[in-house]
Amino acid sequence: MTADAAENSTENSTENSTENSTEDVTEDVAEGVVATRFGKVVDLGLVAIVGVWHLGLDSMRVLKSWPVYEPPAVAAGAWLALTLIQTVGSVLLLRSALGARTARILAGAALVTGVVAATAYPPGGAISDASWAWNTVGWFGMLLLMRRPLWELITLLGANTAVTVGFLAADGALDHVTLSRLLASVYVTAGIQLTFAYLVRQLDDGAREATEIAAAQAEHLARATADETVHTERRRRYAYLRIRVEPLLRGLAESRLDPSDTVVRRRAAVEAARLRRLFVETDDTPHPLLHELRACADVAERRGVRVTLLSYGELPDLPPAVRRELAEGTLLVLATAVTRARLTVVTTPEEVAVSVVADAAAGTRGEPTGLLTTSSTYDQEEEQLWWETRWPLSPAP
Amino acid sequence: MVGNPMAAQPGSLSVAVVDDHPVVIEGIQAWLSQEPRISVRHTGEAVEVQPGAVDVLILDLNLHGRLVVDDIGTLAAAGQRVIAFSQFTEQRVVLESLEAGACEFVAKNEGRAHLVNAVLAAAGDRPYVTPTAAGVLVGDRGASRPRLSSQERTALLWWFQSMSKASVARRMGVSVHTVDIYIRRARVKYAQVGRTAPTKADMLARAIEDGLVTPDDITGYESAAFTGN
């Protein structure tokens, strides 16, 4: 039961942490590429186009046609009003602070200003060198409504064109020639603006789609790696269970092993400690070795052994294989300790030394390994087993 | 400073105990009462001991939730021998106490014998290293740590592991006395690193007098003695 719980908690923690990091990555990718980078470039482009258009082209046209406006002050006022709208709109757009309401109000104000500007044109001059505001209001629509649904932009461009048609009709200037000039103008103004808006939208969607696919692939990869890791861990643990634990359980089940036999009990205690250590091996803790040793100590404490665990010195990161070997002797001694055990870990500048002193049986020996320097002595006078193993640290550069 | 407490009459080695738990004070008094040379002259819950009023001050490091390591520095600077006595055994706390000029560090779970030995040793300006302090010293990877010989390191490590100098002696193949010399020598080397304090200078001077170390072993000893006194 304890083992099950330990295994579950281990796996859950691994899987949860993988999931969280994958989500974070996906969000980062989506926000980083689409919303921020691509959107910023489009916004900057629009601000630049509208800036050049109004401050450059419009200013020149208004000044050139200055004498024909009736009165010129209206043209100047409309120009100033549009400059104001443009500045506010551009700043808000670049700060990503342009809300739906503000965008509509500013677009409406631009349209009204366009009407005011048109009142100052000479009669029949709604399509002429003097008529500067028509095209400008269209570009303002682009600037302000690009991030809004497309119909809002179409509505504005339609209304803007209607204003021109209205003024032409009022002046009685809607003859064949003017009509064809009107159609040509609509084509080069509203037509181009709509096409531009459409293309930006397509690119935007494309970029978003590409990002989403990339994010999905990254997530899939992360998930696959995590699954692979969990699977490998499970297989390793399963292999261990089959080799070491199964014969013991089988022997007990088939009554070949006697649970009251000291040797059998000791073997069971050792395997229990090994399993406990195995299950916490993949836990994410700052000091995995101490965490694993604590798990070994815990098993001994359940048998009524008083265990003291002390550690001094800053433990370095140790590979799992080294930790396994450092813990192996510990759990063998702890499994045979009768009443007390002192478990110490010391990290000196030269090595990591793990030691257990316990009232354990004299014969307890770990399997000799090539990696570590292990020594074990039985102190007759104090009737205790003193086991020690050391892992050399590479000297600091 | 009091003359030579080690050769003193019964009850002439005066001790003060400062701890914020009366039960601990009474426990320490009971422990020390079994040692005729020691008499407890003062007890209290705050560091309000006049430096020099007693030979040794046993000071709980955590008084009413506050770590009093800094007070050790002040007391040691005035020549007061202090034994840090604490349930906090983190490496940093132990090293800082010794660095501040405490004569010894004794963990509260280390028991009567270690505390009594620490008091007797401190009163004579001699080093005493408990297993806890040994683990801390051998695990010290600080930049200013003194250079210890391999026997000194082994003795400290095994003393920490086994808590039995007899066991360490058997394992090292030397006498218990030699093990004790290795351990004390390692401790004395710590008295000459970091900031200077009269308590540290006294310990160094006594170690040279006892032949535990030679002045050559202790680089910078002279300056430590001069600035200390």
Automatic annotation (TrEMBL), chain A:
Q: Where are the transmembrane segments?
A: 73-93, 105-124, 153-170, 182-200
Residue ranges with Low complexity bias:
7-20
- Alphabetically list the UniProt keywords: Membrane, Transmembrane, Transmembrane helix
The keyword Lyase belongs to this UniProt entry's keyword annotation: no
Annotated region (Disordered) at 1-26
Query: What name is this protein filed under?
Result: ATP-binding protein
Automatic annotation (TrEMBL), chain B:
GO biological processes = DNA-templated transcription initiation; phosphorelay signal transduction system
Record's keyword annotation contains Phosphoprotein: yes
CDD domains assigned to the protein according to its UniProt record, in alphabetical order: REC_NarL-like
Q: Which organism is it from?
A: Streptomyces dioscori
This protein's UniProt keywords: DNA-binding, Phosphoprotein, Sigma factor, Transcription, Transcription regulation
Highest taxon of source: Bacteria
Single Gene Ontology MF annotation: sigma factor activity
Q: Give the matching InterPro entries.
A: CheY-like_superfamily, NreC/VraR/RcsB-like_REC, RNA_pol_sigma70_r4_t2, Sig_transdc_resp-reg_C-effctor, Sig_transdc_resp-reg_receiver, WalR-like, WH-like_DNA-bd_sf
The protein's matches in Pfam families, at most eight in alphabetical order, are given as: Response_reg, Sigma70_r4_2
Report the residue ranges that make up the Response regulatory domain in this protein. 14-123
Identification of the protein by name: LuxR family transcriptional regulator
Report the sequence similarity comment from the record: Belongs to the sigma-70 factor family. ECF subfamily.
Kindly list the positions at which 4-aspartylphosphate occurs in this protein.
Answer: D60
